[in-house]
Every structure is written in C-alpha cells, then in structure tokens.
Amino acid sequence: MTINGPVGTSPNRVGGRDRVTGAQQYVADIHLVDELHAKLVKIDVSRARIISIDTTKAEQVSGVRLILTPDDLPRPMPRFGPQYADRPVLAVGTVNYHGEPVAAVAAETKEAAEEAAALVEVEYEALPGVFSIDAALDSDAPLVQDPSVRPGETFADSNIKTEFNFGWGDIAAVEGEADCVIEREYEFPMITHFAIEPHAFIATLDGDELSVWSTIQHPFQLQKTLAKLLDIPLSKLRIFAPDPGGGFGGKQHPKLEPLVCYMALKAGRPVRLVMSLEETFQAVRRPSTRVRVRLGLSLDGTLVFSDIETNYLIGAYVDIADRVASKSSYVAAGPYKVPVVKIIGRTILSNTTPTTAFRGFGVPQITWARESTLDEAALELGIDRLDIRRRNLAGRGDEFVPGDTPADGDWIQTVERAAELVGWRTPMPEGRGRGIALGLKSGPTTGLSYSTVRLLADGSALVISGTSDMGQGARTVFAQIVAQEMGISIDRVNVLMGDTAIVPYDQQTSASRSTVLMGTSIHRACKDIHAKVRTMASRLYGVAENLIEVDGGTVRIAGEDHPIVEVVQESMAPLGGEVIGNGEMRKDKEPDHPLAGSAAFFEFNCTAIEAEVDPETGEIEIIKHITVGDVGTALNPQQVQGQDDGAAIMGLGHTLMEVLILDDEGRTRNLGAIDYRIPTSKDLPIALISESIENHDGPGPYGVKGVSEGSLLCTAPAVGSAVRDATGLIIRDLPLTPQRVWEAMKEQA
Amino acid sequence: MSTTVHIEAIVNGREHALDVAANHTLLDVIRDQLGLTGTKECCVVGECGACTVVVDGTPMNSCLMLAVEIDGRNVTSVEGLATDGRLDALQQGFLDLSAPQCGFCIPGQLMSAHALLQDNPDPTIDDVHEALGGNLCRCAGYLQITEAVLAAAKAGKE
Fold first, then answer.
1. 20 to 30 Å CA-CA from A329: which of A176, A271, A444, A575?
2. Number of Cβ within a 10 Å radius of residue A509
C-alpha cells in the first residue's frame, strides 16, 4: 500500500511551536482573577483514627479565607472512583494511607496557605496498617476497608478486593504430558509515574456554571464524576483540560478535583491547587506485584500448560486497579499458543497510595515474571531462548486466547528483526550477555469517540476532538488525517481539544487508543464531508451525484479531478459557510466476554538487550537496546519512534533504578526527585534502536494499530535475561540496582 | 508580611525594576511576578531542571536561587530565545526533530542547551548528555533532544 500526502510523513508536531517558545499553557500557568491558593493538610502517618481537627491557629494566618474539614462536607461523606465509589473527598474518621488529605486551606497567597496548613492541628491515634501482600493477607490483618462499604462482595471480610479467574482447559488433565515443570515467583516493586508536570486543578463557579481546569487525561470522566457528586447538569459543568505535561496513566481519573470544587463553592471564589511533586507521588503509583508462574513444557520447549497467579498490592482505595489486574492477567500467558491455561488474578488492598493505570496497565509486571520463567525453562531444557519463543509464538489468525481477537500480526517478523538487530548468536566480547523477551498487551476493549471536522470557506479545517494530547502527538496525527482527506496542507488544519463545552464526547485517552479509535472517528467525519461535497459538486456542475466520486482531497467528475477546496470555495462564494462532518467510533461492550470486550488490536513488542555487568560495582551497562513493535502503519514515523524510544527508556527506569521505599510504618521515604531516580540523559543505552514492522494490518485508518506502550512491556525480562547470560545470576526482584546485583554476585561467589 | 527588596535586572533583554519578596525564589518571581510561565515548576529542589534559566551565561535552577540574587544581572528564560517571533536554531532543531513530546521539560532543556552552545559551540554527544544531565524528561525524548542540540550546533556554524 502506498500512502501519499501527509499521512506516513513526519510534519512538525502540532503544538510543537508553543512547546519550544514557552507559550504552551499547562494548568498551573492559568490564573483566574480573584483566585485563592489551596494547600492540603496531611499527617505523617499511614493509618490513624482522627480524633479532632483544630483550625484555630490556622485561621489566624493573614490571608486565610477557608479551611475545609470533613465537617464542611455533605454527610455521608461524598465518595467517588472509576470502579467503586470508595474514595472520600477528604479522609473521614480514619486516614487510610500516607498522605491522604484530612483538610485543606485556601488563602490569598501560596505562602499563607502553606503556613496555615502547617498550623492545622490534627489529633490522631495511629493504628496498625498493612503495607505488603503478606501482611495484608495475614489472618489477623486489620481490614483496610470496612466490610460495610463493600456490601455483597465475596472477600469483604478480608483485604482481598477481587479475584479474577481466567483460562481454558484442565491443567490436571495435561500435567502428566509435561516433561518439565518449572515454577518461579517474581516481584515487581511499587513505582510512581513522575510526570514532570505535577497534578494541578482550578475550579470556579460563574453564575450556575461550574468550570474546572485539570491536568486530567479523561475530561469527560471527570465531568461525569463531578456532575454526580455535585448534582450539576453536564451542560453546566465545563471541564478545561489543557494538554497535560505527561500523564502515563497517572492522570486518567479524578483525584483532588472534587475537593477543589467543594472549596470553590464554599469560598465563593476560584480556588487553585497546584500539587507539589511529593504530593503527586502520594496521589498515584503503579501496583507492586508478585507473580507466580508455573509452566509445563515438552523436551523440545513446546508449552503444555501455563499456570499463573498474579497478586497486585493496590492502595487503600481502588481507583482503576481492579481493571488493571483483570485486563493484564487476562493475557498473562502472553503471545503464545498454550493448550491449557489457568490464571488467577488478585487485587489486595493495603494502607498505601491508591494505585492506578500506569503505561502498560499491569502488563510489565506480569511480563517480567512470565518471560523470565520461560528463560529459566529454556535454561533447564538446554534450548536457545530465542528458539523457545519462536516455537510457541502465535501465528497470524491463531486464537491464542480462545474467544478473544485472534493474533493480528505476523509477529515472528518482529521477533526475527529484533534478534537480527541485536546480533543474536553472533560473538560478543567477554563479560557481555544478551537477552530477548516478548511483550503483548490488549488494546482498548470498549470505546466511544465522537469528533467534528469543519471545512471552512477558505479551505482550511478545524478538528474538534476530546482526546488529550499528553505528548503522544494526537493533535498531529489528527491534523495529518484531515489534511490527507481534504487535500490541504497540514498548516491549514487546527485542532481543538480540552474543553467539554466545545468538543463532543470521547470516552478516554488511554490504552494507545487515540490514533485507532479517535483517528477512525475523525476519518469518518472526513467521509461525512466527502458526501456533502459530492452534493455540492452535483449542484455546482449540474452533474448527477452518482457520477461524482470524492476521495482523499479530490472530487472526480467524468474523469476530471477537482480539488475539494476548489469545489467548496466556488460553492460558498455567495454566502460563505462551511462543511461540517461528524464522526463516531463505537466499540461496544460484549457482555459475554470476560473483560466485557475483545481487544481492538494487540500491542506486540520484542525487546533485545546486550549488556555488561561491572564485576566491581554491580552496575549494568546497556550496550544495545533493541525494540521492535508491530504497529500496522507508522502514521507519523518520527512520533512513533519518539513513543518507542521513550517507553523503552521508561522501561529501563523500572528495570534498573525505580522503587518507592516504605518504612516499617508504611510511610513513603523517598518522596520527590532527590531520592527517587528516573532515567536521565546520562543513563541511556550506548545504542538504542527502535524499529517498526508495518504490514498495514491494523483496525485504524490506513491500517494503524496503537503504539506508545509496547516498548516498555518487556524491558525488564530482556535486561534480566542479558544479566543472567553475562553473569549466571538469576535475580527475581526489581529494580536491578548496582547494590542488588553486587549482593547477588557476592552470594554467587 | 515578608520584607521586599528592590532589584534591577535585565530579563530577556529588557530592564526590569522590581520589588521582590526577600524569601521568593527567582522561579516565583519569573512565573508569578513577571508572568513568564514558560519556566516550569516541578521538584523545587534543584533536581529536575524544569525551571532552568540562564543567569549571566550560566544555567541555573531558578527554584534554588533567591530573586534578590539577580540584582544587576542578566537573566534569559525560554521566552527570550526567539527574536521577533523567529525561532532560534535550538528551538527550530527541537521542533524539526520532534524533541518535545508533552513539552513540560522542554523550556528547561532548551535553556541548558542554550548555555552549553554559548560556551561550547561544537559539543560532542557526551557534552550534550552531560550539560543536559540535570534536565529530566519523563517522556524520555532524550535521543531526539540530543539530536536537536547537535543539529542546532551545526546550524550555528553554517
């Protein structure tokens, strides 16, 4: 397939100019007249009974206008959450995790708010809490959520939130057929998103219209949440969602917006809350995960069964954690043809930061365990680690998860390309090792995206879309689609987003969906315009509609091509006007599917690593980092590479350095940038190569599949595999810090 | 209320006479008093580089400098790079190579790179990694950022 025009090229990022001049406005850059500054009141404890909150001293600080405590909120305390309405607007009765806000101050200046927040006296009684899987599952463990708030739940009397059971076939029946059974347990620690933009919110009431600015990824979910809590019609609840300064899942769902709204309503003035990085760490994290993998294999490496148990340590409130656990566990057996599979996925409540979506949505944790165990099996069977994967890999059309979308790519091409680029089985210097791993993630299982494209009288176009552009470059690819379909230069396309009063409904920006789902919606809006242009051309030239074809930017009449823009301009000459196209992309729920929907596509990635371990320090140096993704079509190759490189480096973060450290009392000890390390320009692999396999076989416009998460799915097992290859060490916990590797080397010696 | 101090400084080529609170950082004053919101606030402990500005040729974390310290000095923020709406070579390089993803760290990256190129017009890759090592990018566009700095250096020589 040949693609002409802007699609398949890499024009400058739409919004790129504002990003290099400093003109890009993020939430914290927006100020309202007469605004108050908010500061959260927190106590340095992970679980406690609140005895009293004394605001006397705080009220005396000059400039303080409001101190909101639970007493100022409706009773019972309003609660919200994307899956369960379990998160209170402010802690009520007890604090359930370190950093849960107990009150909030609004003042004329940031300093006054900070000073007063520190002067709010909270009397409390510390209570025992649970901060690890083992502690939470102990029979004497205190319950994180009271059974009364979990009516009808199977596990309400324990700290297990939910258990998911997936699979096919009967393991007991095939157990005897396996020549080798290997069982291993792998751990993945708590980590945090660390978007460089901390979360920020502003709320103001103007007449009976409430306006809220948020760093949110899903503005329409925020609108729905606030409308329900505050009983305001959607039409009078306007969410402004400027492009977030990085999201990575941490900004998907409402967090502090309800609190800020209550403050603005109570104060009668606009209230802004710009969180510190430390506070943001206390708002979102990735669940730590323990995964037990038991694989049965034949002597030739063929998988006979996979038996996988995943335990996700989630926080005190569920947020989207149950969905993270179910969706990732569901594909825990990976991109392989496995005749019999048993999967148990569990979420376990704890007195820790609520966990939420984080790039990869639970898959990196499972992949670390599955791919590493597969490596251990290869080792035991004396089979090459690439061969064992080749042998079991699903081919195009294989229903590798029965009842779900069949394998939607020639994945072997991806694997072979990665192996070739890393030089698998070619000689390498002494002390080095190589590793290879496969990652697979389901794309979105449901979706609803509306869009409007307005082709204006001068042949320029507006795209109106509810997607959030948090760096993935949605604005650019949407402009490319419209430029392509209208036959105009991308410079003449403008993309409006981030205002629920203007843009039509979009379910969410997540799961690498935007190019596929919203892209399809926009493509359909363009087709809607094509149909209208055909009618215009018919009138303009007096030719029957059935003799006119409109495609790309061209109107074809009796073999003669006219640019769309020419037809539109001539038709509109008398009165002006515009042509409005609407698009809809709906992926409905499938009630019988275990996830309520099959995968729109799969993100499939192969990562291959060549690494060296310093025998003196335990430091891992990545010599070659190869990541190859099956992307369908790279609609904008430069942006695809940016996503792949970025995800790969983010993967190195959780592989080599990132971990949230809790003390014995469950308080996070490394809040902020000094003690929580993420990769810098000095932590890069010596060579990082991202490549795409393009077979134009995706469900989105021009054959695109989603990208953006693929190349961090299997970074950790690929690095772990290379370390084992170089040193013989098998380490089953992350991150692979110099200390951990050095200690393992000492133990080995 | 805190004491205010009168200072005079050149910011982005313009002379400013300012009364600043003695306890306010340069970041506070740049963003809240001068309204130059291109300079970003993230960690406020000098670790992330989002607030980097150039003071008399040296890249500084503006969150770690008191505003009074710029008295009599010359400060450049990201808004000072373009001339009459024309992007400078660094900005153009960042734009052409798609270095900004979410964009939040980009002003800081640009200012560290600006100081580097003023000091060393012909940097190596390692020089760029070193000079920008204090500017975190969670989108991890480091490869594109480095290429953009090298492209700008090359453009500067032509």
1. A176
2. 29
For the segment(s) A31-127+197-281, the CATH number from 3.90.190.20, 3.40.605.10, 3.40.190.10, 3.90.1170.50 is 3.90.1170.50
d(CA A62, CA A188): 47
Q: Which of B101, B114, B116 to mutate to test the interface with A (most CBs of A within 10 A)?
A: B101
Split chain B (158 residues) into runs of 10 and give each run's mean pLDDT: 90 98 98 98 98 98 98 98 96 97 98 98 98 98 98 88
CATH 3.90.1170.50 in chain A: give the residue spans. 31-127+197-281
Residue B37 to chain A, least CA–CA distance (Å): 6
Residue numbers in chain A where pLDDT is lower than 70: 1-5
Contacting residues of B for A243, CB less than 8 Å apart: 102-103
Structural class in CATH, domain A130-190+286-394: alpha beta
Q: In this predicted model, what pLDDT tens digit does every residue of A449-506 receive, in sequence order?
A: 999 999 999 999 999 999 999 999 999 999 999 999 999 999 999 999 999 999 999 9
Report the residue from A19, A25, A247 with minimal CB separation from B100.
Answer: A19
Using DSSP, state whether A445 is helix, strand or coil. Answer: coil
Strand-strand pairing, A36-41 and A48-54: unpaired
The SS3 assignment for A58 reads helix
In the block, residue with structure tokens 């199977």: A154
Cβ atoms within 10 Å, residue B48? 30
Q: Which residue has the tokens 């002067």?
A: A119
**What's the CATH number of domain A16-23+447-587, 1.10.260.40, 2.40.160.40, 3.40.640.10, 3.30.365.10?**
3.30.365.10
Out of B100, B134, B140, whose CB is closest to A20?
B100
**Spatial contact of B39 and B104, defined as CB atoms under 8 Å apart:** no
The ipTM, to two decimals, is 0.98
Cα–Cα distances in Å, from B142 out to A70, A117, A679, B145, B147?
A: 45, 38, 10, 5, 8
Sorted by sequence, the CB contacts under 8 Å of residue A11 that are 6+ apart come out as A476, A479, A480, A490, A636
**A196, A648, A680 member nearest B104 (Cβ):** A196
